[in-house]
Structure formats: structure tokens, C-alpha cells
Description:
The protein is an all-alpha fold. It is built from 4 helices and no strands. The chain has helices spanning 15-26, 33-50, 53-65, 67-85. The radius of gyration is 20 Å and the shape is flat.
Amino acid sequence: MATAKTEKVTFSLPADLVRQMREAVQKGGVASQNALVREAEFEREMEEAARDPLFMQDLTECMHDFRFVDAESSHLIAEDEEFEAQP
């Protein structure tokens, strides 16, 4: 995946929001304040996509098409977890 060109900008945000962002980074919930903004944008885009009937139809069709592969993968993951849990 190609990395998008970045541009440094300055925003004025409520002090409480900035504090919450810094706390999220300090607690390790997110890698950086920049990552937090990118994640928020991604979340907004996913919410928008969820309201798009064509996107949701395509997603449903893909999930249907891959159901057997997903079931097989799920089975293999469960086997790996059981093996790792053995003493």
C-alpha cells in the first residue's frame, strides 16, 4: 500500500480534547496523535460506507462467497490455539 503524501498543519482544538488525545497516546491506546486522527477518519469512512446500500450488498455477497474459507480458517485457528495451550 502506498503511503499518502503528508502535510504538516496546525489546528485549534478544545484543551480537553487535546488532553484526551495525549492521554490515549501515553496509555498506549494509539501510536501517536497523528494515528488517532487517521483512525478517526477511517472510522468516519466506515460509518459512511455502512449507510451505502451498494457497499453493504457487496460486503454481504463477499461474506457469503467466502463463508467456507472463513469456516475452514476458523477451524484451523481453533486447532492452533488448542495445540499452543497444551503443556
